[in-house]
Amino acid sequence: MSLIKLTIKGISYSQTQSGAYALVLSEMDGVRTLPIIIGSFEAQSIAIALEKEIRPPRPLTHDLFKTFSDRFSIKVTQVIIHKLVDGVFYSSLICERDGVEELIDTRTSDAIALAVRFQAPIFTYENILDKAGVYLKMDEELIIEEDLESDEIEFSLEDELDDNKNYTNISLEELNEQLNEAVENEDYELAAEIRDEISKRS
After folding, report:
1. 98 in helix, strand or coil?
2. How much is the pLDDT for 107?
3. Residues contacting residue 126 through CB under 8 Å, at least 6 positions apart
4. Strands 88-97, 100-107: parallel, antiparallel or unpaired by DSSP?
5. How far is CA 79 from each of CA 94, 98, 126, 187, rounded to the nearest angstrom?
6. Deepest in the core among 71, 87, 125, 142, taking most CB within 10 A?
7. Which stretches does DSSP call E strand in the chain?
8. 34-72 pLDDT, tens per residue?
9. Considering the entire predicted model, what is its pTM?
């Protein structure tokens, strides 16, 4: 059965499971999306890997795996979501070292977090998309994209942030100082909020 390449469409807070997030994958040459429920840690790890501007002062678990793999010349060449049982997705990492390929079983959320770091392609099979994929019309797709964009912002900010916080009276220099401090304190939600404010002024 042929493999279908997927891309990360977005991450949004799950409306059905408290404390969980929906990772939405989209087929490259089609209109189907594949929503996968993941935990908050994995969602944060994927979001940080996608945000090139935010660098944690200490490596996250997936960063450590990437550093370890690089040190021993192990490369993740692709991720395959190969099975769906009772709503649970099963995935494999295809790894290569010295021309020898190895297949490693992994949780899908971890696989995606590593795929982003290794810039490895993500694939699934047609029967999985047929079973769990969601078809979108063009107008629906635009609405979903707008919703995901809004949800991504919510994910970055989290509930602990003050919704009424206003940065208009803070200079760009002070914002950059606050950004550095937030990253040093590993407060990535606050860092994302400050970064967005800096981006608006650029």
Report:
1. coil
2. 95
3. 1, 2, 4
4. antiparallel
5. 6, 19, 15, 29
6. 125
7. 3-13, 20-27, 32-39, 75-85, 88-97, 100-107, 122-125, 134-135
8. 989 898 889 889 988 888 777 777 888 999 999 999 999
9. 0.66
